[in-house]
UniProtKB/TrEMBL annotation:
InterPro entries: GH, GHL5. Keywords: Hydrolase. This is Hypothetical glycoside hydrolase 5. Gene3D superfamilies: Glycosidases.
Length: 788
């Protein structure tokens, strides 16, 4: 049936929505209260056989656009769409329907629209308006729930009720139902995952299959290989942001229109294929799922992943979302109206949290996203949530907004609940003295809940555990962990610290005791038996591990959308070649194939280019024409193409795409050390069996280092459980081997006497060791227990 015959404007239903908005604005206690209620009605939503649409459009009032020039644009493909195809040209029917305007809001209601479902592509939509010159302009839906072609394209109307009805973890949520909203508390540990590099498939569906396989093996009591053990022993999974990210700055656009007429349009559709680490967002579309991560193009994949975690045999695993609302990339200016923004910052744009409508819409985006089934929410860069205080003439942290984020009540499977919250907040970052002055407790001390967490000082960026004296230099921070670390995320391996590690000059004082090559040193620094033991057996808080670090896979600042600054980004990342790629890795035919096609046949070829590029970026002030000219003038001649501005950008794109492929953990799984994998899994199980280890140190607990140092850092820790159990750890963090020492005779108060049992031995210590003299080397650790 033709689109115009199938759908119709329901004026009465649209008028009812507009009238409800009017009453809310008239009667709500504050404008923000009103906007919060109105935000629930925004976006495209299905209610029975009516599709409702609501938009916040202050730009229409500013441009004095009359209501008669504003329409809901509905687009329906004339042939079935296949969202798994890389490129297709499709004809769409178009229909324009009236809207009801109410100052800064407009609403409409439509009968007969097709809503998207797991096995059905829905109609697409946007708001459109005509200016006095007859030119048409689109307003995209920032609260869309399905964006198969990214944030810069019309949204797909999606049946969220059907999505929720199809979830298979309803029993998990129903068991939490009570008289008041359930409040999730912290898990015992977290596995942090970047979806595109976590499996060979690189999608949420592929990751779901990985956990389904693990669940099946656990259910059938089958042996676990090292690649399986990487994912085991965690009772929560935190995904790096799964929101839609930026698009290619200079194209191609994923939705390109040709042959535009009043009743139809032909669209050249590209399956989104950007590579990104997740944090380059445009705010619009934050309630949806990044289509790059969807194998089928259906947001149901995220519900499927939540379900496989919640139904995991033995004990459910919690799902934590990582959300980014502290900034927007500059591309957000093309997706949202200007009222969303409060001026530029180092990442792109600040958001106007003081605008009641913006504040309400951001919180509504968060609510809708967490309703996919998140048990927890991690807030990226909470120190960036600021507003300008005109009376004091300073930027002020918006702690009330952070509290509002933690107060949101979710509703899944008929159960109301509030997720557990983590805030990454290093204020006063980016002040120069932030590493010294940050307490990492600013949010903890201000929020009402006693289970609010922050990233701790050993987890925040700029930690370099592969440099000599790192652990002694951080000893004052470790002492803080002992007394106030119960509500900190602990551990040194995460997406940010591993990235920062690859940016450190190899000329610094590198701990060569960690390995024979830079790759070995970096890998062991962030997957270190002694550090893991410190985190899991000694320190309070909730440990977190990054999958790429645990797999000893590479990682970096991965995004291929940049055109203007892409070469500069590669210049900043070029040093990672020294840390993460050796001659053998580069020589593998499937690695760095794009760069090889451009003429960098060997690692040495690429390394020489990477020596010149950062220096030239700096000395030319990032003048690409000068950089190209100077690169062509080298003697002997550099490998690679003849350098022009265009080929420099081509090399930058190839670098990013090749590094993205190189960072997939599937490459490193065959080389995993089964002893290391088994040990880290044993540590996680050890921690899970002793939840009291999360608590701060008590009066009888002890932590210190053996003196005199004599060229090594040897930590000792003694913890006391509520049942009288003692846990005693000896950790060789760095430096020379010890002489023969008896760990139980180091004079730590409380370790006197007998009854100790050696519970954990790090790799390098044989299973026959029970107690007595031993030589401990860099990264070795022992854990003893004694019953009360």
């Amino acid at each position: 049936m033709p689109l115009n015959d199938r759908i119709s404007f329901d004026e009465q239903a649209a008028q009812a929505r507009a009238e409800a908005c009017h009453q809310t604005l008239m009667t709500a206690e504050t404008r923000f209260d009103a906007e919060q209620q109105i935000a629930r009605q925004l976006g495209g939503q299905i209610d029975g056989d009516i599709a409702y649409f609501g938009f916040w459009v202050p730009e229409l009032a500013e441009n004095r656009v009359p209501t008669g020039d504003v329409f809901l644009e509905v687009l329906a493909p004339t042939v079935p769409l296949d969202l798994t195809v890389a490129h297709q040209d499709v004809a769409f029917e178009r229909s324009l329907l009236p809207v009801i305007r109410l100052d800064e809001h407009c609403f409409t209601a439509v009968r007969g629209m097709i809503a998207g479902k797991r096995r059905q592509i829905g109609d697409f939509y946007a708001l459109t308006w005509r200016d006095s010159d007859g030119t048409w302009h689109r307003i995209l839906d920032p609260l869309a729930m399905s964006l198969p072609f990214g944030v810069m394209a019309p949204a797909e109307l999606y049946d969220i009720d059907a999505l929720q009805a199809g979830r298979t973890d309803t029993g998990y949520f129903e068991n939490l139902k009570g008289g008041k909203p359930h409040k999730f508390g912290p898990p015992s540990n977290i596995l942090q995952i970047h979806v595109p590099s976590a499996t060979a498939g690189g999608t949420i569906a592929s990751l779901t299959r990985q956990f389904e396989r693990l669940a099946s093996r656990v259910s059938h009591d089958l042996p676990l290989e090292p690649a399986d053990q990487l994912f085991m022993g965690y009772d929560s999974v935190q995904l790096l942001p799964v929101e839609p990210t930026t698009v290619y700055e200079t194209g191609p656009a994923f939705w390109q229109e040709t042959d535009d007429t009043e009743t139809g349009v032909t669209v050249s559709l590209y399956r989104p294929d950007t590579t990104n680490w997740g944090y380059d967002i445009v705010i619009s579309g934050m309630a949806a799922v990044n289509p790059v991560l969807l194998e089928t193009g259906r947001p149901d994949e995220l519900v499927d992943f939540a379900s496989v975690l919640h139904n995991f045999p033995g004990k459910p695993k919690k799902l934590v979302f990582d959300v980014v609302y502290g900034h927007s990339d500059n591309q957000g200016l093309n997706a949202l109206n200007p009222h969303f923004f409060a001026g530029p910052n180092m990442y792109g744009q600040n958001l106007d949290y003081q605008n009641p409508a913006v504040r309400a819409i951001l919180l509504e985006m968060q609510r809708r996203k967490a309703n996919f089934g998140a048990d927890g929410v991690r807030v990226d860069g909470a120190q960036d949530f600021k507003f300008w205080d005109p009376s004091a003439q300073v930027m002020v942290h918006d702690d009330d907004y952070l509290q509002s984020m933690a107060d949101i009540v979710q509703d899944v499977a008929g159960t109301q609940y509030r997720p557990w919250f983590i805030f990454e907040d290093g204020r006063p970052w980016p002040d120069e003295d932030w590493e010294l002055s940050s307490t990492y407790r600013s949010v903890i001390e201000k929020q009402r809940d006693d289970d609010v967490f922050q990233w701790g000082p050993l987890t925040f960026a700029h930690n370099t555990p592969f440099l000599y004296t790192f652990w002694l230099s951080k000893y004052w921070r470790i002492r803080e962990c002992l007394s106030v670390g119960s509500n900190w995320i602990s551990g040194t391996s995460n997406h940010d610290t591993l990235r920062r590690g690859t940016q450190v000059s190899p000329e610094m004082n590198i701990n060569t005791g960690l390995g024979h090559s830079r790759m070995e040193i970096l890998d062991k620094a962030y997957d270190n038996p002694a550090v893991h033991t410190l985190t899991y057996a000694a320190l309070p808080g909730v440990p977190m591990d990054f999958l790429n670090a645990m797999a000893r896979s590479s990682w970096g600042f991965i995004r291929n959308q940049d055109d203007k600054y892409g070469v500069k980004v590669v210049a900043e990342e070029a040093i990672s070649l020294k840390w993460q790629v050796d001659e053998y890795s580069y020589s593998i035919p499937s690695n760095f194939r794009r760069l090889k096609e451009l003429g960098y046949e060997t690692r040495a070829d690429l390394a020489r280019f990477c020596e010149f590029l950062p220096a030239l970026v700096e000395v030319t002030g990032y003048d690409l024409e000068d950089i190209a000219r100077l690169l062509n003038a080298t003697d002997p001649k550099l490998a690679g193409p003849h350098y022009t501005v265009a080929t420099l950008k081509q090399v930058a794109r190839a670098w990013m795409d090749d590094m993205h492929d190189y960072c997939n953990i599937s490459h490193s799984l065959p080389g995993l050390d089964p002893v290391q994998s088994a040990y880290t899994l044993a540590l996680r199980n050890f921690r899970a069996a002793r939840p009291w280890l999360r608590d701060n140190y008590g009066p009888r607990d002890r932590f210190g280092y053996v003196e005199p140092l004599n060229g090594r850092t040897l930590f000792t820790s003694l913890r006391h459980g509520p049942d009288g159990e003692q846990v005693y750890s000896v950790l060789h963090m760095e430096g020379k081997p010890t002489p023969d020492i008896d760990p139980l005779l180091l004079g730590v108060p409380g370790t006197e006497g007998f009854g100790w049992h050696c519970a954990l031995r790090s790799p390098g210590i044989g299973p026959d060791y029970l107690s007595g003299p031993i030589v401990l080397r860099d990264s070795m650790a022992l854990v003893f227990t004694r019953k009360g």
